[in-house]
Every structure is written in structure tokens, then in C-alpha cells.
Amino acid sequence: MKLVDILARELSEWVAWGEKIVQDDDGYIVAFETDAELKCVDGDWKGPSCDPICVLDLADDYKTSIVTRAQWQAAVDALKAEKEFAPFDFSGPVLDYGPKEWTGEGLPPRGTKCEVQPWKEHEAPWVEVEFIASWLAPNGLTYSWVHTGYGWKEPQMFRFRPIRTPEQIEQEISYRAICQLMDDLDIPSAIAARAYDLGYRKFEIVEE
Asked: Could you say which of 23, 97, 176, 196 has the lowest number of CB atoms within 10 Å?
């Protein structure tokens, strides 16, 4: 990678005293205060009034590259524009999208319409989305990108499940209702299920 691109990614701001920045062969980033001529001798840059800033990965062009503030700013602006254009920026391996016929096991294939729920929010509603991709972070966790009808959702850990059929939705509603009957009446599941089948429901009485 070129020195100007490394500086655009690693320097949050330009050094106040520096006119030019170079890199020695030991990785040190060095700022020179004046606009004097600089020369690289055996991997070590020579010039007046210099200060080391930090150590970064060695650039491919460290022996010849002299970066000015204007060049650094242009690279920073280009990097910002690139990130704004791209819906996501992979810095880790992209995971396999799973089998073509997704049954709910593993990751969905790209473009799959499915439902997601944030991993740590068990009470959060399931939201219908389109699966885009997943990324394995350096910490070992899997983060995914999805798209809703309102735009992209920020990368995070999701639970995935296929979009439920009307029968599955009805089954979930009945299961919750039966559990509620069990809690309210302190009765076994079999009796609660029988009561539900007979039409018993919990209603709230609203006084006008």
C-alpha cells in the first residue's frame, strides 16, 4: 500500500508542525517542519527539523514517497467517499452463504428474504429483511448485513429464520395463548390446550 493511503487510514489529523511526511525503513513516520529538500539514504530520510510521529506498516513506496498535507487530505476525502458509496467494507473473510435451498440452518443464501432478530434482544420483534452477507470479525463473532424496506441495517449479530407461513403464525399465536392460560389459571398444559381448543381466550375488559 502507498504511504499516502496508509496515512489517510491511520492519521486522524495532520500534524500541526509538519510540512511533509515520510517513512523510514524501520516503519517510523517522520514529519519535517520546513519545505526543504529531502533525501532518502539507505532507507533513512535526511532533512532539517524532523520529528518522529509513530510507527506504521511499511509502505510499498517508502523510499520515494513524500506526502504533503494536501495529498493526505485528498486521500482522506477519497476514503470517506468510498465508504459512503459502499454499503459495507469487509475487513475479514466473507462467510459461505449456505445451501441454495435454505431451511433455516446456518446462514441464508445471498438475496434470501427472511426474518431477523438482534442476537442479544430476545424480546425484540422479528423483522422481514433481505440477507446480503456475513463477515467474520477478528473477535470470532459473526456480523451480518441485511436490507429492509427502509434501507440498510448496521452490521450486527442476528438470529435468522425463514419467513413464517400463515399456519406457523397461527401456531405461534396459539402457543403463546396456551402458555398464558397456564400462567393465569395455574393449570397443566394439556388442560390449557383443551380450553384453548374449546374457544377460551383471555380478554381485557375496558371500562368506558
From this structure: 176
